[in-house]
Amino acid sequence: MAIIGFGEIAEKLRRSTVLIHAGGRGSGSGVILSSDGRIITNAHVARGPRLGLQLWDGREFDATVASRDPRRDLAVLSIEATNLPSALVGDSSQVHPGELAIAVGNPLGFIGALTTGVIHAVGPLRGLGSQCWVQADVRLAPGNSGGPLADARGHLIGINTMVAGRLALAIPSNIIRDFLSSGPSDAWLGVTIHPVKIPRPNSAGDNGQTFGLVLLEVEPRSAASAASFLPGDILLGTSQKAFRSPGDLSQALEGSGPRLLRLEFLRGDYSRVRRVTVQLGGQTARRSSVAA
């Protein structure tokens, strides 16, 4: 069944979607929230204090990261511009399975690519913890992260973040509202992680395995770099609690102001647990990048 005015709805959504250049890390997408240059995207897309940004009409800007939250994987960017075409934010609690979903982004270098599908579910997904997702069968590719998932009216109902099987997962718009109303976080560790199961003979975990978070990248001049972490190190937990999901690391990083965090990790020898104290907060803690 045709949707009246769908072409106009799609074009408005395209105009409120931006291309974010993340340097050598590729590109992503973002959504204009206000006409004066406030933009929402994923924290794992906005991984530096300043980024290049391109609007639908080809204009380019230097964007500043105004706030970011690694636990929610959200970040707010700011550019010096006026009269921008902003998106309308919808209510994700009113989204139901079977409704039309529209995604816009910049996958694989294709600017303003649009895809449609239907909502599959709204809620947690098995294996990904308690995080709530808007789950839709729209097709996403690298470069879509940070872009809008909208309903049939073009209202933003989520920020596209990852793919699980055939489903696109988006952070619900009501979580975005909570993020925008909260204060900025300075919980920047400066790593990209991936969950793994480690075979350890003396482990109390399932089948002699321990959950860990392997460091894929360690950013220069980050808290992790200052603590001498290296790619390939595996985080096990804090001195008080073992990690059981990536969200446990995000929770351990929460807070503001200068503070210390004692982390346990493995390097090479799985039988030897190493410990290090990480300095969080302060002048260097402007970013967070616990990537999805």
Overview of this protein structure:
A six-stranded antiparallel β-barrel has the order 1-2-3-6-5-4. By secondary structure, the chain is mainly beta. β7 and β8 form a beta hairpin. It folds into three domains: 6-78, Thrombin, subunit H (Beta Barrel); 92-181, Trypsin-like serine proteases (Thrombin, subunit H); 191-280, PDZ domain (Pdz3 Domain). The chain contains four helices and 17 strands.
Low-confidence residue ranges: 283-292
Cα gyration radius (Å): 20 Å
Number of strands: 17
What is the CA–CA distance across the termini?
36 Å
- Percentage of β-strand residues: 35-45%
- The proportion of residues forming helix, as a percent range, comes to 10-25%
The largest sheet has its strands arranged as 1-2-3-6-5-4
Structural class of the helices, strands and pairings? mainly beta
CATH architecture descriptor of the largest domain:
Beta Barrel
